[in-house]
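so the lab meeting is tmrw and i was supposed to have these ready like two days ago... anyway. pasting both below. for each one the top line is the aa sequence and the line under it is the structure tokens. i havent really looked at them closely yet so no promises
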Amino acid sequence: MWKWLHPYAKPEKTYKLCSTLLPWFAVTSLLCLILGSVWGLAFAPSDYQQGDSFRIIYIHVPAAALSMGVYLSMAIAAFIGLVWQLKLSDMAAAAMAPIGAVFTFIALLTGAVWGKPMWGAWWVWDARLTSELILLFLYLGVIALYSAFDDQKTAARAAGILAIVGVINLPIIHYSVEWWNTLHQGATITKFDKPSIAPEMLWPLLINMLGFGTFFTTVTLIRFRNEILQREGHRPWVRDLVRKNG
């Protein structure tokens, strides 16, 4: 059933696949981000309580969602690398870690900007905010471990273990508003049975979330290709590629 995946265990084959997919994700990301951002920031109606300050949702929510989604993807890649000893999985996890850290930082920064007019403070030790901050520290720890060892296998093993252990923080982030009495608002776009956001506000948000997701994929493909070239630099196909493009 999974035999069609076997050829992509070869770095050369995977590099070519990334090169093929890259322009498609890049164009999709650009179109979605332009459409979603312009629609949400300029044409969506103002919120009846928050006014125009709610528009930061079109940056904050996608970044926050991706901060958790990227971490889960990174942990899965690290798990595959640890269990099945696939070096490409380790490369993928290493490629995703800095991107996820940036999304987490954006989520925290935009959350602080949004929280100031709503709560009267840039930061409160709210359960959602605190667990999101811990997520940023987990990302930084994984990145540090990838750079802490000269041996790439040892680095991947240490970083992978931390990434897998850190998954326990994801349900805490997601359910924190339900488990504890927090200032952070509850679910909005996931309540399909009774949505908490008007359709004319929801659609640009969904488009922007797709844009953020495809942007993440685009940057990951670029970083993943670079990881392959860096670690496989001694291979003949890499030398031929460099010679051809040089």
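ok protien two:
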Amino acid sequence: MDKIKIAIADDNRELVGLMQDYLNAQPNMEVVDVAYNGKTCIEMLNSTPIDILLLDIIMPYLDGIAVLDAIKENGDLQKIDVIMLSAFGQESIMSQAAEYGASYFIMKPFEADRLAVQINHIMNSRTGMSGQANKLTTEDRITNMVKDIGIPPHLKGYNYLKEAVLLVLEQPDILNKVTKVLYPGIAAKFDTTSTRVERSIRHAIEQVWNRHETVDHISKIFGYSAAHLESKPTNSEFIAMVADSLRLEMRNNND
């Protein structure tokens, strides 16, 4: 089996060494190159074939955003998935990085096993998307719909919401146990608290409902009237709407 080829761009040499040791110890991963500043990172990307780039936002010469911009603008650079690493959680910076194509954000400090899980998740999603549309995995369909709804991928609620929909599709009755089962299950997976999961999902929904044109767009996706959607749904109502729409979509594709 081919190993996942990973490159790291971060000026913290101690952290780079720790990530290298951990990822190289994984049976399906290999760190093939490292860079300690943005300029060297661009040179590395031009010369080293990789699958995943672990990219720090703050680096000398060129920061992570500038590297992302170069990847986006330079058609000669390879198509890769980028995981952004940052010790700061400014929403404006993360939003800009998401627009430039970052696949995921991990806040420092982080557990190494969480990084490995996310790398595997991205590669599994890429494999699923390479097939025909009717062979999309359930997780791919959820991702596509959440993106289509317009929820910004840099928000924590983006990933919490995707996980909530997946759990509801697998266990429909869990909607009756949102606070006792659903939120705690998501919190355990993402190493956070039920309260933060609830608040983050609510914040993500609010980001959509604060834009009127997005509500009109959602009415077309779900088949509800715009008037019906004027009132912002609760977390559980929104999760149910997404899950029901996906069930219908998958049923139609199977017919």
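from a quick look at the 2nd one: The two ends are 35 Å apart (CA to CA). The CA atoms of residues 222 and 245 lie 6 Å apart. will dig more after coffe
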